[in-house]
Structures are given as structure tokens and as C-alpha cells.
């Protein structure tokens, strides 16, 4: 037993457990890593916030990988932000980007309006010698928290709550005037007796009219855990002066909360000149020739905005 640390640390995932409630989870606090990813692109503020939420969610989910692989979150929708890709390379690397139609974006638009309708895919890639696992969930006018809850309900069938917060920090003084910050928490009910985690059957679309819906009474421990979880405020997830341990203590001190060693995360793209050259070599000769402009081939990484220049000869153009 020890007092919660008062030292706030950014760009980490903090695993935790509340044994008395049979809940486990992860808390993430993001500062410089999130800011680095978002500021490399000139996104409108609502788009930056939405992509930040996707990054926080991916960090919470990808950090559960127990092997060297990738967790990829991707949305494809009809909304102003038509595509989001977040790539988490275990154990600690992140990269991300979004495609958007600036003409359809208005100040203050929320995440649900930006996403519109489509789907969210979560892919686990265990490497070239293993098959990929992918889960899909429909996006039907909700936000990423809604989509995560729907995914766990339908695909994992584990009682789960997710909380995401992203905001802009403006400061005076000699340091950076503007920075992005993010935070999030994932909590799951994992009792030793599996019947305690049972959930109601999903609504059967072809059930006869008047059928009695399947109802399962919620476990008291999970009810209490959710009630405490619901008290989390955005400012608590974003405050650079509030440590993750102190937030967990505020939530669960009456029941007792155990924390585990933090996992660091960092913004780091996997692109390189060699990788881009290999990608160019995979194209047909005619396609490579069409890429030549002003006597050179320029390829810009969508994730980190790095540009790579090649002469036509280097690009394999005859």
C-alpha cells in the first residue's frame, strides 16, 4: 500500500485493477506524442479533436497486445471526415492521419457529425506468418465512445466502458502557446465466475412480435463500478497537473485500487526512403512515369507529412 503519486506523467498507459469490484482497466494520458501527430497536419480544430479521440482509443485498445504486432483502427464514413487511420505498433509506437472535406466542416462540429455513417474496423495484425483478426462495427450517427461500446457488446461480449477526452491547451510564457492533450480510460468487468458477466442477448431482428426480451440483472459490483466511472470529467483526463494515479484514487479509494507499471507510448512513423522506394518499385512502369512532375517524383507520407524526392532514374522511370 502506498499513496498515489502526485507527479503527472504524459504519454503513458497505466493499467489498474479494482479487485473488490472485479474490474480491470487502463488509463492513458497523452501530451507531446499526441501534439506531435496532430500538429504535423493543418487540420481544422474539430478534425484534430476527432483524430485525437481515435488515437486515445487506439492507445487504450492496442496496449493490450501481448505480442509484437499491430493494432489498426480505421473508420470509413460518409461524413466530413471520410477516413481515419490510427496505427499502433506494439509495444509503444503510434502514427495516425485523417482525410476530410474542409468545405463541409463548421466550427464546433462534434465527433458524431464529423463521422456520419459508415463503419469502424479494428484489426489485429500478428505478422506475416499469422492470420489477421478484424472486428467491424457500424457507425450510425454516434461518436467513437458509442462505437467502442457497441464493439465490445457484439464482438467481445465483455461488459466495458470507455471514456475519451481531447482538448487544446493554450498557455502564456516562453513555451509553446498551443498544445493538444488527450486522455482516456477503459474499464472492464472480469469476474472469476463467468455467469456474473452475462449480458442480455442481442435483440433478435426476426423474433415474433410481442416476444419477451431477454433480460439479465446487472451485477451489483459492475453497477457500482459504472457509477464511479460515470463521474469522470474531461478536465480530469486532460489536466497536466493531475496524475493518473490520483485520478484512480479519487474514483476507487474506498474499494482499493492497484496500479501496475506504466507503458510508455511515442509518436513514431515507420516510413523511410527505402520503404518508399520499395513501394514505387511495386507500381507499373506507366504509373511511375505519370508520377514525374518537374523532373522528379515526390512522395509524401500521409501519416507524418515527410516528403521523399527521387529522380526519374531512381524511381525506375526509363
Provide structural commentary.
With 318 residues, this protein is an alpha+beta fold. It has 2 domains: 12-267, 3-Layer(bab) Sandwich (Hsp33 domain), CATH 3.55.30.10; 273-310, no CATH class. The chain contains 9 helices and 14 strands. The chain has helices at residues 32-39, 45-62, 111-115, 144-156, 220-229, 234-238, 244-252, 273-281, 285-290, and strands at residues 12-18, 23-30, 70-77, 81-89, 93-100, 117-125, 133-140, 160-170, 178-189, 258-259, 263-264, 266-267, 297-300, 307-310. The strands form 3 sheets. Strands 1, 2, 8, 9, 10 and 11 form a 6-stranded antiparallel β-sheet that branches. The protein has a 6-stranded mixed β-sheet with strand order 7-6-3-4-5-12, covered by helices on one side. The chain has a two-stranded antiparallel sheet with strand order 13-14. The mean pLDDT is 91.
Amino acid at each position: 500500500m502506498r499513496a498515489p503519486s502526485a507527479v503527472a506523467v504524459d504519454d503513458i498507459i497505466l493499467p489498474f485493477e479494482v479487485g473488490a469490484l472485479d474490474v480491470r482497466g487502463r488509463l492513458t494520458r497523452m501530451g507531446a506524442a499526441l501534439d506531435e501527430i496532430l500538429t504535423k497536419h493543418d487540420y481544422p480544430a474539430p478534425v484534430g479533436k476527432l483524430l485525437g479521440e481515435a488515437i486515445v482509443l487506439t492507445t487504450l485498445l492496442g496496449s493490450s497486445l501481448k505480442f509484437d504486432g499491430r493494432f489498426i483502427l480505421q473508420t470509413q464514413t460518409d461524413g466530413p471526415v471520410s477516413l481515419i487511420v490510427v496505427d499502433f505498433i506494439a509495444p509503444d509506437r503510434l502514427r495516425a492521419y485523417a482525410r476530410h472535406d474542409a468545405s463541409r466542416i463548421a466550427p464546433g462540429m462534434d465527433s458524431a457529425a464529423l463521422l456520419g455513417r459508415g463503419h469502424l474496423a479494428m484489426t489485429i495484425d500478428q505478422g506475416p506468418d499469422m492470420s489477421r483478426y478484424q472486428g467491424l462495427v457500424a457507425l450510425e450517427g454516434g461518436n467513437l465512445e458509442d462505437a467502442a461500446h457497441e464493439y465490445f457488446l457484439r464482438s467481445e461480449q465483455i461488459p466495458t466502458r470507455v471514456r475519451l477526452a481531447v482538448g487544446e491547451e493554450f498557455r502564456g510564457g516562453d513555451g509553446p502557446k498551443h498544445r493538444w492533450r488527450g486522455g482516456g480510460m477503459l474499464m472492464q468487468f472480469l469476474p472469476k465466475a463467468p455467469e456474473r458477466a452475462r449480458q442480455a442477448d442481442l435483440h433478435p431482428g426476426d423474433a415474433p412480435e410481442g416476444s419477451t426480451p431477454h433480460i439479465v440483472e446487472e451485477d451489483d459490483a459492475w453497477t457500482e463500478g459504472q457509477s464511479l466511472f460515470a463521474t469522470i470529467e474531461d478536465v480530469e483526463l486532460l489536466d497536466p497537473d493531475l496524475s493518473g494515479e490520483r485520478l484512480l484514487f479519487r474514483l476507487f479509494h474506498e474499494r482499493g485500487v492497484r496500479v501496475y507499471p506504466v507503458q510508455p507510448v511515442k509518436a513514431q512513423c515507420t516510413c523511410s526512403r527505402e520503404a518508399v522506394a520499395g513501394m514505387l518499385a511495386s507500381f507499373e512502369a506507366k504509373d511511375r512515369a505519370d508520377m514525374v512532375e518537374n523532373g522528379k517524383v515526390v512522395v509524401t507520407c500521409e501519416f507524418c507529412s515527410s516528403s521523399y524526392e527521387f529522380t526519374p532514374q531512381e524511381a525506375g522511370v526509363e
